[in-house]
Write a structure and sequence with these properties.
It is globular and about 70 Å long. It has helices at about 25-30, 40-50, 70-75, 90-95, 115-120, 130-145, 185-190, 215-230, 255-270, 280-285, 315-320, 410-415, 420-425, 430-434, and strands at about 10, 15-20, 20, 35-40, 60-65, 80-85, 105, 125-130, 150-155, 180, 195-200, 240, 275, 290-300, 305-310, 325-330, 340-345, 355-360, 370, 395-400, 400-405. The strands form 3 sheets. Strands 4, 14, 15, 16, 17, 18, 19, 20 and 21 form a 9-stranded mixed sheet that branches. An 8-stranded parallel β-barrel has the order 5-6-7-8-9-11-12-13, surrounded by 4 helices. A 3-stranded antiparallel sheet has the order 1-2-3. Helix 8 (about 215-230) packs parallel to helix 9 (about 255-270). It folds into 2 domains: about 10-40 and about 285-415, Lyase, Ornithine Decarboxylase, Chain A, domain 1, CATH 2.40.37.10; about 70-280, Alanine racemase (TIM Barrel), CATH 3.20.20. Helices cover about 30% and strands about 25% of the residues. With about 425 residues, it is an alpha/beta fold. Bound molecules: ligand LLP. Ligand LLP binds near residues 167 and 204.
Length: about 425
């Protein structure tokens, strides 16, 4: 039915399954909406990526931001994945999921001193510094804690990744990294700071890249930089190439991990460096569905609306990036079913709460289950409780088994962190007078 679905999500006997489990059974047990992940797809994606890099000295650090669920991190960690983290919270998650500190890298443009202290105390593999002030803080903290962290400098290669402008990171105007042409000066200053040794370079030019050429341009600049720095006596022996490989959402044809790995070998393979990779989306995107129930069908003045119980707070990608997610009925449509255009929307009070416009869909009725495909990356990860909707739960499937790996919060739990100040507990007249 859909090219967007991996083989682990398929119709059998007229119903959509996740591996061996009918989606409708999970919906009955967990309620909707929920995210549903396939362990087998995660494993297959991991093997494709790691297998392509075989032979290179590579540490593959799953970009936790794409899907921070503990069970997802742990599923990948058991296959050998490290973690790329961008906050203390993500670092704590990675450690809690059993990722060895020696396989964790810390990226990000604005790490706080507290985060740097926690990272150094945890003994992680590498910290990617993105600016001179950050290098200065790193040197101070390292001295105070008597640690010798492995630091890489993130460079900005000024290359257009040809992706959505909100997820492009390697242009000079973007906030990330140090201009690659200034790296030499920054490293010379860093060398003068006791307690700090920068032996690596890092880059990440953007996300959802569907073409190899931007990678080729960026890796070429990185190569030039390594050679120049080595000629000046800087012992660069570690390269972090970030993430960014795209996935098909609507018929795109992104490069395969194999083509990407070949490019790495050709452009950088002879430098004798240890590599770090930070893939996120390519490992988890197609391993996840967002499952929702149709609340009602509304005949609007100019179009039909399918109103479902998932909303922009559960999956924000369409609202934020105009992203396309395939939408499938969980009950297999009859052969030759007529398709009709509808807008698929959620209940949130914003017009932006629209998953798809004029989408051709088979007949749907109130109570039907639908699934949004390719939602395993940046789906639950970016969910919120806007409109006081409970944070969306997550389910992990493995063969015939499934488990709730994040529960839907109870209404009381959602209020539990809030406090009323004592003046609001007093009678209204007193507060006004005070
Ligand atoms: N490394 C760094 C330093 C990053 O900033 C990112 C993603 C990654 C690795 C992983 O990139 P990936 O392999 O997943 O492309 N919320 C957006 C995507 C934001 C990506 C941010 N950085 C979306 O839903 O499309």
């Amino acid at each position: 039915m859909s090219a967007a679905l991996p083989s682990e999500f398929a119709y059998r006997n007229g119903v959509l399954r996740a591996e061996e489990v009918p989606i409708a059974r999970i919906a009955d047990e967990v309620g909707t909406p929920f995210y549903c992940y396939s362990s087998a797809t995660l494993e297959r994606n991991w093997r494709a990526f790691a297998g392509a890099l075989a032979g290179l000295d590579a540490t593959i650090c799953f970009a936790v931001k794409a899907n921070p669920n503990l069970a997802v991190i742990k599923s990948l960690a058991r296959l050998g994945a490290g973690a790329d983290v961008v906050s203390e919270g993500e670092l704590r998650r990675a450690l809690a999921a059993g990722v060895p500190p020696g396989r964790i890298v810390f990226s990000g443009v604005g790490k706080t001193r507290r985060e740097i202290e926690f990272a150094l105390a945890s003994g992680i593999l590498q910290i990617n510094a993105e600016s001179e002030p950050e290098l200065a803080t790193l040197a101070e903290v390292a001295r105070a804690l008597r640690r010798k962290p492995s630091v890489s400098l993130r460079v900005n290669p000024d290359v257009d990744a040809n992706t959505h402008h909100k997820i492009t990171t390697g242009l000079a105007e973007n906030k990330f990294g140090v201009e690659w042409t200034r790296a030499h000066r920054v490293l010379a200053e860093a060398r003068a700071k006791p307690g700090l040794e920068v032996r690596g370079l890092a880059l990440h030019i953007g996300s959802q890249l569907t073409d190899l050429e931007p990678f080729r341009a960026a890796f070429g600049r990185l190569r030039d930089l390594v050679l120049l720095l080595r000629a000046e006596g800087f012992p660069i022996d570690r390269l972090d190439l970030g993430g960014g490989l795209g996935v098909p959402y609507a018929g795109e044809t992104p490069p395969s991990p194999r083509a990407y790995a070949d490019l790495v070998r050709i452009t950088l393979g002879d430098l004798g460096c240890a590599f770090v990779f930070e893939p996120g989306r390519i490992l988890v995107a197609d391993a996840g569905l967002l499952v929702a129930r149709v609340i009602l069908i509304k005949e609007g003045a100019t179009q039909r609306f399918v109103v479902c119980d998932a909303a922009m707070n559960d999956l924000i990608r369409p609202a934020l990036y105009d992203a396309h997610h395939e939408i499938l009925p969980v009950a297999e449509p009859k052969a030759g079913a007529m398709l009709a255009a509808a807008d698929v929307v959620g209940p949130v009070c914003e017009t932006g709460d629209t998953f798809a416009r004029a989408r051709k869909l088979p007949p749907l009725a109130a109570g039907d289950l639908i699934a949004f495909a390719t939602a395993g990356a940046y789906g639950a990860a970016m969910a919120s409780s806007y409109n006081s909707r409970p944070l969306v739960p997550e389910v992990l499937v493995r063969g015939e088994r499934f488990a709730l790996v994040r529960a839907r919060p109870e209404p009381d739990e959602m209020l539990a962190l809030e406090r009323l100040p004592n003046w609001l507990e007093e009678p209204a007249g007193v507060a006004a007078a005070g």
